Amino acid sequence: MKSILLTAFLLFLTFPGLSEETLISGEVESGGYGGPVVKFTQFNDDLGVMVGGEGGWIINHQFVLGGGGYGMTTRHEISIDDEEYNIDMGYGGGLVRYIIKSDDIVHYDISTMFAGGGVNISKEAPGDDIGTTSIETDEFFVLDPSVHVVINFTEWFRLGFGMGYRQTFGYESEYLEESKLNGAHAAITFKFGEF
């Protein structure tokens, strides 16, 4: 029995490739990208448009570690005591992405963003006065998974079309339910870089 165990142990040491698997092995190839993103999304039971950008470090043409940020560009209102107030939202944070067959002209990726965000409810100054008055500001956490179809146009430019869902956590408001911040989105991503 001891000889069998000793033989198995020696085989284990002799063939380390059979005993150890790693997520990233061998020589690591690096790339990177950045670019603007446009998201068409549900927001407060309406269609909203968010504009921002993202970028990241590409590892072995498969894994991306990066970040991004987005802000609402469309106007959204809420009625409080028979008066209309503006709602603004934005969020940004870290991004993790897995790319499937990066060298194919049309390929796919899946990603998740872990972010922090905020909502501001405000009213514009009356008459000729300039500025706004905030009545409430609150922060929240965002989990934003998505899947994309990506087209390789050139060696340095790719265009992605994606769908995902924004889920917020920890938002507390006297005027707006947290569910109004959550919603599906469709995104167009312009990627410039070395892939």
Q: How would you portray this structure in words?
A:
With 195 residues, this protein is mainly β. The chain has a single domain, classed as Porin. The chain has two helices and nine strands, in the order H-H-E-E-E-E-E-E-E-E-E. The chain has an eight-stranded antiparallel barrel with strand order 1-2-3-5-6-7-8-9. Strand 5 and strand 6 (106-124) form a beta hairpin. The longest helix is centred in the first third of the chain and has 13 residues, at 2-14. The radius of gyration is 23 Å and the shape is elongated. The chain starts with a helix and ends with a strand.
Poorly predicted parts:
1-19
Overall 3D shape: elongated
Average pLDDT, rounded to a whole number, is: 88
Q: Domains counted in the coordinates: how many?
A: 1
- Number of strand elements: 9
What strand line-up does the widest sheet have? Answer: 1-2-3-5-6-7-8-9
Output the number of helix runs: 2
- Taking the alpha carbons of the first and last residues, their distance comes to 53 Å
- Structural class of the secondary structure composition? mainly beta
Strand-residue proportion = over 45%
Q: SSE order in H/E notation? A: HHEEEEEEEEE
- Taking all Cα atoms into account, the compactness measure Rg is 23 Å
What's the main sheet like? Answer: 8 strands, antiparallel, barrel
- CATH topology category name: Porin
The top-level CATH class is Mainly Beta
Helix content: under 10%
CATH architecture assignment: Beta Barrel
